[in-house]
Amino acid sequence: MVRIERVADVHAETGENPLWHPDEKRLYWLDIPPGKLYSYDPKTDSNELAYEMPDKSAIGGFTVEADGALLLFGAGGRITKWEPATSRTTVVVDGIDREANGRFNDVIATPEGRVFCGSMPTENHLGSLYRLDRDRSVTTVLSDIDIANGMGFTADEKTFYFTESNARRIYAFDYSRESGELSSRRTFVQKPADNGIPDGMVVDADGCVWSARWNGGVVVRYDQNGRSISKIEFPARKVSSVAFGGPDFEDLYVTTALGEGGYRPKEGDGAGALFRVSELHVGGVPEYYSRVATK
Description:
By secondary structure, the protein is mainly beta. 1% of the residues lie in helices and 51% in strands.
């Protein structure tokens, strides 16, 4: 049996984007709508609010830079570099015209230090998947995405996974390390219209995909052929994202959400908390650093 612990009970509206910082040996994660970045130190079993957007605008995702700083992907397509040691911020991208009234939703660094960054739909258009290259240029990779979400890479770095939540699909693409381009889209998982919506994801050391289920209360593990092979249940309906962490990447960290105006009698006793799952008998691998030039 796996061991499930509630390690940080922050009552997040939309807990998201857990990511292990290998240099600091701690986990960072978000509460997206209020623009709050939290950190958890397993050595001291303590958590804290590490950073909050000064204007209270959303942070939709972040990556760890090669120098240890974090890239924060926010509202309006704005991207900011934040340095944990000094809390100094530097604007990397002022904004993206198409996202003037939108925000980022999930991001991932690539093996070369680029970043794929997805956006939410707005009243005027569906979301997009962008590629932020190391020179700070931004390219639209996919359009008309109905909630861009969890992403990951296979161990050979030739296949890229991408979740379109409201389509209830996880796609697989051929990935070109040289150009950063995606091709040959196919459906890896097609989720039936019950038991939740696929949200954040991570790939483990065996090449299997762990997918969080918003409104499903579970994390589902899929083999390399897209077959469901196991699941873990949580005391929260809105299970939002997953990441491996710890010194040997043996622990699975899981974020959950209360939802806008949500309350625990409806959403579950653990809604909005950060959980750690151990004794899995499978671990993860380090995520890639982003390596984006700053001005």
